[in-house]
Amino acid sequence: MKNITLKQIAETLGISITTVSKALKGYTDVNENTRKSVLELAERLQYMPNSFAVNLRTQESKTIGLVIPEVVHHFFSNVIRGIIEEAEKNGYLVIILQSSESVAYEKKQIELLVQKRVDGIIISLSNESNNETYLSQIITKEIPLVQFDKISKLIPSSKVIINDQKAAYHAVSHLIAKGCKKIAHIRGPVNPQNAIDRFLGYKKALEDHNISFDPKLVYTCTDVTFEEGKTFAEQIIASHPDVDGIFAITDLVAVGVLAYFNDHKIRVPEDIKLIGFSNWFMSQVVSPKLSTVDQPSFEMGKQAFNVLLEEINAKKEGIAFSPKTIELDTTIIEREST
Amino acid sequence: MKNITLKQIAETLGISITTVSKALKGYTDVNENTRKSVLELAERLQYMPNSFAVNLRTQESKTIGLVIPEVVHHFFSNVIRGIIEEAEKNGYLVIILQSSESVAYEKKQIELLVQKRVDGIIISLSNESNNETYLSQIITKEIPLVQFDKISKLIPSSKVIINDQKAAYHAVSHLIAKGCKKIAHIRGPVNPQNAIDRFLGYKKALEDHNISFDPKLVYTCTDVTFEEGKTFAEQIIASHPDVDGIFAITDLVAVGVLAYFNDHKIRVPEDIKLIGFSNWFMSQVVSPKLSTVDQPSFEMGKQAFNVLLEEINAKKEGIAFSPKTIELDTTIIEREST
DNA sequence: TTGTAGGCGTTATCAG
DNA sequence: CTGATAACGCCTACAA
Asked: What is the DSSP letter of B290?
């Protein structure tokens, strides 16, 4: 016997579908005996409501969509974990799509989720994104939306972020406190807000400590990879041998820098100090262990889901919901590279 | 205007829902002018079929479920990427759940997916799993199923795997070729088939090279973590100072071993050689760089989805489908630790 | 070429 | 306490 339906239970018991439905859903206006026999039979036949029908009826899928640039990424996979754990606790499932840092994909993925009629969407923008008209479309369609990490400030949705500027400021101040006088920054791509903010934090820290800002000491990643870290490390040493500190946009890049230094017998932290960002697992297994900025990725995922849920619920109850911005704390983790 | 339906288009145009539906679906028995006006209006109103209704009607959701032990894991996140990319190409979306290596969760996750009526399920079992009766339930329900990596041989589903025994055999043979005479093995937990197979490959390689197998040289992980690697490294050095080679169940553990050795000035590969498994990204950034066994994770994900798709399609067409087992190749990657 | 009618399975309303 | 009926939106025989 394949899929048990209310109808089958009703027929077997010689009662109406309505009554079966009510009994199963715990309505009070059902005779105790009727209820019992329904429950019993349903249990025995392993009745399972047809979710397609339930979706159609209730106009909700109990499913949310998540769009991220990259799944294979320590930060994002932790966020994913936070989201799916929290979602599951609340009876939601999560469809995951990746934009691969491409606007075109990102747009397509969003379209897929909209078509699927997910109850809400959580997104971290791709590096390419800068004119995200397709995001406002989500809002127009009144689909609850939460942005996290790489966000667009222009889109009026809830946001879960860290204060990138402040975090970068602290990271660079840490280098300065450790004695660095000439600090290079390997920054992220031009578009993403968090790369911009980290850069601004870097600049501000220099200024506040009376170190003059030199644009020549800023290197811009396009792909934010391990290889770019290596390449820029080489360039830095070649062009500015007196640089004594480097602040890298993310640990992956910092680890690339470290690999280059290790290969070329440049001592860290003696010759040059290095700090990364994000606290990837990797950063504790390299030598010297990398100092970095811890970013609460798992927590970010949890919070992102919870805000989304609030909005979903508000929408269901027809209550107006004003977007919230949640800012999570970061901490400097001092290890051996500074 | 919120959700456009066929009905609205029909009413606006003063024709029947049927005709609108047909026009939209490219049926030939629709007047050219009617079709045009329908298409035009649909386009203008951004008509989007209600997927809930479509699901109910067609009895398929174009969604598959994926259950894995851990999202934050280099191997698994690559598999995820392979699966979602391939799924998307074929018009499927992927719901991801994690079992956190717990049978209880695993069972629950599967139940959720079954309730959701996903079109198919891909799973890699948790380490705890050894009596997976809930899996056969999936098969009884005739939901297409593919197992990968950590599988149960007893369940008659399609499988995408590597030959763990052979791969381990090669890894250990590599150590022997490099001159190791006394090789320890840090193995995975007792249950998972792949831990068993890797252990058997280790044992066979020793035997084939006339090195007597010593059960004392086998250390069993429970959690397969970086820390366990450190702990076992310490135990190995303490109890068997003459061990000159170690084969670790996975790179994460091997990196833990390396960390201990680095901290204690034990030289790799001079004093002791070390090989890991899986080729995590991390293995190329530690020093010395870790030799390992490359496991085609992304490819595994792709293949897993494709077999699943075959089965889904066979089921739709009512054709019988016999489970397939796909075995992917692995390669030894020699770096600096051997 | 167009439209009517029935059904997918559930839920909610309302009358009995 | 029970059940008939309609509706969610789409699809598809079948009839006109």
From this structure: P
Specify the pLDDT at position A133. Answer: 79
Task: Strand D proximity: list residues 146-175 of B with CB under 7 Å.
Answer: none
CB of A30 lies under 7 Å from some atom of strand D: yes
Helix (H) or strand (E) holding A31: none
CA distance A8 to B40: 43
% of chain A at pLDDT higher than 70: 99
Measured CA to CA, the distance from residue B76 to residue B165 in angstroms comes to: 20
What is B93-151 written as a DSSP string?
EEEEEE-TT-HHHHHHHHHHHHHHT-SEEEE---TT-S--HHHHHHHHTT--EEEESS-
**Which of A23-27, A181-185, A256-260 is least confident?**
A23-27
- Among the partner-chain residues A74, A77, A115, the one whose CB lies closest to the CB of B48 is A115
| Structure tokens that stand for B97 in this block | 């759940």
Q: Which of A95, A97, A286 sits opposite B286 (nearest CB)?
A: A286
Residue linked to tokens 């989500």: A138
Identity of residue B155: I
| Residues near A327 by beta carbon (within 8 Å), at least 6 away in sequence | A161, A162, A163
> Secondary structure of B40-73 in the HEC alphabet?
HHHHHCCCCCCHHHHHHHHCCCCEEEEEECCCCC
Å separating the CA of residue B326 from the C1' of nucleotide C9 = 38
C1' (C10) to CA (B109) span, angstroms: 24
Contact A131/A108 with Cβ under 8 angstroms? Answer: no
Indicate if CB(A45) is under 7 A from strand C. Answer: no
State the nearest residue by CA to the C1' of D7.
A57
- Chain A residues touching residue B95 (CB < 8 angstroms): 63, 93-96
Residue whose CA lies closest to nucleotide D11 C1': B57
Q: Does the pLDDT value for residue A161 go beyond 90?
A: yes
Tens digit of each residue's pLDDT (9 = 90 or more) over A233-265: 999 999 999 999 999 999 999 999 999 999 999
Average pLDDT over residues B187-192: 94
The answer to whether A99 faces chain B, any CB pair under 8 Å, is: no
Q: Classify residue B332 by burial, with Cβ atoms within 10 Å: 0-12, 13-18, 19+.
A: middle
pLDDT (tens digit per residue) in A29-45: 889 899 999 999 999 99
Q: What is the pLDDT of residue B133?
A: 78
Query: Quick check: A37 contacting B, CB < 8 Å?
Result: no
